[in-house]
Structures are given as C-alpha cells and as structure tokens.
Specification:
By secondary structure, this protein is α+β, with helices and mostly antiparallel strands. The chain folds into 2 domains: 4-85, F0F1 ATP synthase delta/epsilon subunit, N-terminal (ATP Synthase, domain 1, Sandwich), CATH 2.60.15.10; 89-131, ATP synthase delta/epsilon subunit, C-terminal domain (Single alpha-helices involved in coiled-coils or other helix-helix interfaces, Up-down Bundle). It has helices at residues 90-105, 113-131, and strands at 4-10, 13-20, 22-27, 30-34, 41-44, 47-54, 57-64, 67-71, 74-78, 82-84. The structure holds adenosine-5'-triphosphate. Adenosine-5'-triphosphate (ATP) is lined by residues 12, 64, 81, 83, 87-89, 92-93, 96, 119, 122, 126.
C-alpha cells in the first residue's frame, strides 16, 4: 500500500517522522483527509488533533496551530508546539486548563483574553489527545 512520509516539526525539534496511509486534521477551513498523491497544498491548522493511520492503528498528535504543507508523498506540519499522545503530561495540561479558565472567569480587564483562550484550547486539546 502507498504511504505518505509525515514530519511534525516545532522550534524545539522534530516531534514525529513516519510513514502513514492517511492523515486527517482540522484546517481553519475545515476537515482535511490526506492520502498519498494528494495535490500540493498549504493550509493553516487549528489547535486540534492530527490523526495518522497506519494499517489498523491510529497515532494521534496534539498540534497547536501552525501550518500543513502537502506534497504528493510528503506532509510536513510546522507548529509552535506539538506532542505525541504518549508524551503528554495530562496533569500539566489540567493545571494549564484550570489556570486559563480562572483567568477567563475573573473578568479582570487586564487579562489578554485571546491569549487565555488559546492557552485553554491548547490544554483541552492535549487532554483530549492523551485520553483517546
Ligand atoms: P504550559 O502552561 O503548561 O507551559 P502551554 O500551552 O503554555 O502550557 P506551550 O507554550 O504550548 O505550553 O509549549 C511549551 C513547551 O511545553 C512545548 O515544548 C510543548 O510541547 C510542551 N508542553 C506544554 N504542555 C505540555 C504537556 N501537557 N505535556 C507535555 N508537553 C507539554
């Protein structure tokens, strides 16, 4: 079966490199399913799970925004941060979630609401990916 070479890269270094039959992700314009031979594409990603199918298994990566670049047999994801499900520290993500939620509930005029919402989304995404 044909495969795609998938690389997930962050400023801290490579997070994942592997061969997969299909990649599914959520771009800002909607869900994308990428198979080998897909037309070239660049798309901004949402804070979401990237699902990677290989035979009967599925690997999940929490990708925190960034960009997807598709070439016929190679997909590269560049993001500020990304973690494989097995590398996620759920307690840390729960703490980050509580911190962000408290800030958003505080009605404090000095908080950066967009920043707190993004931190909350990153934490929820990590928790969901780790628990699947
Ligand atoms: P925190 O407030 O817990 O630092 P954050 O969302 O602000 O969370 P990021 O700035 O997105 O964190 O990431 C900083 C670094 O920490 C990245 O290398 C990221 O992969 C890693 N990281 C963040 N949260 C977790 C987690 N829950 N488990 C494992 N690695 C994490």
């Amino acid at each position: 079966m044909k495969t795609l070479t998938v690389s997930v890269v962050t400023p801290d270094g490579p997070v994942l490199d592997g061969e997969y039959e299909m990649l599914s992700c959520k771009a800002e314009n909607g869900e994308l399913g990428i198979l080998p031979g897909h037309i070239p594409l660049v798309a901004p990603l949402t804070i979401n799970a990237v699902r990677l199918k290989h035979e009967n298994t599925e690997d999940l990566v929490a990708v925190n925004g960034g960009f997807l670049e598709v070439r016929p047999d190679k997909v590269t994801i560049l993001a500020q941060s990304a973690e494989k499900a097995s590398d996620i520290d759920v307690e840390r993500a729960e703490r980050a979630k509580d911190r962000a939620a408290k800030l958003l509930e505080s009605n404090n005029q000095d908080i950066d609401v967009m920043r707190a919402k993004l931190a909350l989304n990153r934490a929820i995404n990590r928790i969901n990916v780790a628990k699947k």
